Amino acid sequence: MILFLIKSTLALGLFYGMYHILLSRESIFSFNRFYLLTALGFSLALPFIQMPQVIPSVQEKSNQIWNQWELKQPAAELEEVLIPFEVKEVPDKSLAVVESGKNEVSGTKFPLGQVIMGIYFFGLLLFSIRFLMQLNGMRKLLKSNSQIDMGSYRLVLLKDDVLPFTFLNYLFVSRTQYNTSAIEPEILEHELAHIRQRHSWDILLVEVLKCVFWFNPLLLLFKKAIQLNHEFLADEHVLREFENHASYQNLLVNKVSSLFGNHPISSAFNFHVTKRRLMMMGKVSHPMRLTFLKLGSFFLAMLLFFTLTSSKVGDDLGFFISEETEGVKKFEKLLSEGFSEEKPFVLELQKLNLEALRQVYFSLNEEERNQISHFPFFDEVTYEQLILLQKEFPRVVTKISYTTPPDKKEIRAEIFDLWLKTKNAELFIDDEERPFEALNQFERSEFAFFEVRETSPKKFLKKPEYSIKLMTHDFYHQKYFESPKTIQTISARYPNSDQAEVFYALRYIRMENGTVAEFIPKNFEASIFHHLRTIDTKELDFENRRSTINYVMGEQFSISISKDNKSQSKVFSFPSVTF
Questions:
Q1: Per the CB 3.0–4.6 Å rule, which of 140, 305, 388, 411 could disulfide with 444?
Q2: Which Pfam families does the protein's record reference (predicted)?
Q3: Range 514-519, long-range pairs (CB < 8 A, 24+ positions)
């Protein structure tokens, strides 16, 4: 059993690593779907495959290594690790006293194998029940709402106002939105692509595997990768059906922007997924590169076949942690001098030594630049405009805001005790899904942040379900303070207290290749600094309430202007400037 877990986990990890690093960046979505599903089945079946005697020397050597490893794992050692008690001999050889307070345990052997199997089947039962409840919930949803037979699929009209989604050959939409034709045809076509390509069956397969191998966290990564690739496939279908690619991409950006504004924490994942989708829509890969990647995936499968099936355990993979270089430390130190004392994630431009920052930045290589906080304003044109803007202080007070971490939350004792007793919730600790029993291993003071969300509302004879997300202090500090910071907005305040703000985070979804030549206009950063320096808010028309957010993609961008201490605000479009 232990050997099976090591082999299958190693294979899953290597397959996922190749996908995450190489294949996920290429526009070969159909191949990626085949790769992910095949990798799952191959990795779990690999330990049971008997390799034919085609390379005897390799097999003999690998068998020797595996046999040596197995001989080094006696049951007594495992018991000593898992039972931290002191066992002493007594005159009666059939009994042993286990010193743990006042408790005594009779017998000379601890039934370790039975306990492990008991834990496994208990987890299998819990996850299976959870999966069956999810299926039953979907069945009730179908039964309690009216349906329309559309031929190749069935339309389910929901009473609630929700975004369209699919399951098997059912398309779920809001009754109100459907009757008023408020659902965009591109969105409907996107969901129908999920049905035609039978994406639900992939997810059902992964959910079944999660029930059987509930202890393997790599299955969660595979599920996320498969779901994201489904979105790529559906987007690819929509772009083939509709000629106006920019309109579809703008539709996605508008939807995620509204989510971001209303729910800054919960929309982070949606924003990331939409960014990936927009990038992959315009991705064009070289045919030769794709050929080499496909061959590479085949050779990886062959490598695992000739090693793991022959009972060979490889060298320890270990962890390669790149140490922070002196240049990275120097850059971060110079940047930290500009952070506000009241708001530690807000840079005050007038405090920065831009020339020193620029010199250090150009001394870094590409790998080192990926380790620093985001501040890429050092090309000639942008840097010149940034210097001019800095010189406008104090007339123009410029601030650059980074992603702000949520405030720490202390868990009250009664709430923590209630969580320990709950059975209708999912548990995530440090961004990893954990069995709920894992909460017993922690004290409430070990957590720096928590978030509770209702994942399924209360229904007749069914309690509401929740998701509990927890962060330990170390993970919180590492995620928000030690990791490179990302710019969200760039703002300026003027003598009349008017303010201008640019949502710079849209920069992260700019596509380098594809149907849209430039999602963000040329000279984007330089144009931001130019307009923030030269804007005259008195000349802007605040009386006309007609939205001007539908700017020309690739030629204009938006700046939000606020007047009278933010009592009046409007979004204006500004052109890209040619310098």
A1: 411
A2: Peptidase_M56
A3: 514/281, 514/282, 514/283, 514/284, 515/239, 515/245, 515/246, 515/281, 515/282, 516/245, 516/246, 516/249, 516/281, 516/282, 516/553, 516/554, 517/554, 518/553, 518/554, 519/249, 519/278, 519/553, 519/554
One-letter amino acid of 435:
P
- Determine contact, residues 214/426, Cβ cutoff 8 Å: no
Measured CA to CA, the distance from residue 204 to residue 211 in angstroms comes to 11
Domain boundary assignment for the chain: 326-403+485-573, 413-482
Residue 418 CA, distance from chain mean position: 29
Helix (H), strand (E), coil (C) string for 131-169: HHHHHHHHHHHHHCCEEEECCCCEEEEECCCCCCEEECC
Q: Which residues of the chain have pLDDT under 50?
A: 53-110, 258-269, 310-323, 514-517, 547-548
Rounded Cα gap, residues 500 and 493, in angstroms: 7
pLDDT of residue 126: 92
Residue tagged 């700017």 (tokens): 551
Nearest-angstrom CA–CA distance, 503 and 254: 13
pLDDT at 51: 56
Q: What is the pLDDT of residue 335?
A: 93
Ramachandran sector of residue 131 (left: φ over 0; alpha: ψ -120 to 50; beta: rest): alpha
How far apart are alpha carbons 577 and 237 in whole angstroms? 36
Instruction: Determine the length of the chain.
Output: 579
Residues 6+ apart with CB under 8 A from 276: 228
Handedness of CA 161, 231, 24, 236 (dihedral sign): negative
What is the residue whose two structure tokens read 């595979």? 222
